[in-house]
Design goal:
single chain, 169 residues, alpha/beta, Rossmann fold, 4-stranded parallel β-sheet, two-stranded antiparallel sheet, 6 strands
Amino acid sequence: MSVETHGDGTLTSPGASVLGTAALAAGVRVAVIVSRYHSLVTQRLLDGALAAAKARGAEVDVVPAPGAFELGVLSLEAARTGRYAGVAALGCVIRGETTHYDYVCSESARGVLNAALETGVPVAFGVVTCETADQAFARAGGTAGNKGAEAVETALDAAAALAGIRSGD
């Protein structure tokens, strides 16, 4: 049995200034970079991402990627344009019979992180890394929520936090 640790995201900070809590302006743009590999899963991630962006009033540009490994370079280029408040990188890697899984998971995560660090634009990691297809579908709109939606929300929340840090608001 697992114990819930995520909570609802609410934090308190009595007596401290809290920066970056203001909503981003309507119409802010987000890039969604989405892997075509395992497209039955990634389409569900994309659907969730688009719904989350619409709910937040954000405009979306979608960039297809061949696979999870290429998410880093495409996220980097999207972030470098200066057109996006944030980027969401979506993909799916399911363990196979070789160590290929470990390399793809590790390097796609590294690429996404490097894109954010090199540009100062938040790039959210929305890659489901699973042991089985059932786990992947659960994380793409099933019992475990939709990680595509979470990635867009994360990118937008991080963009708001960065705007608050940069402006002091």
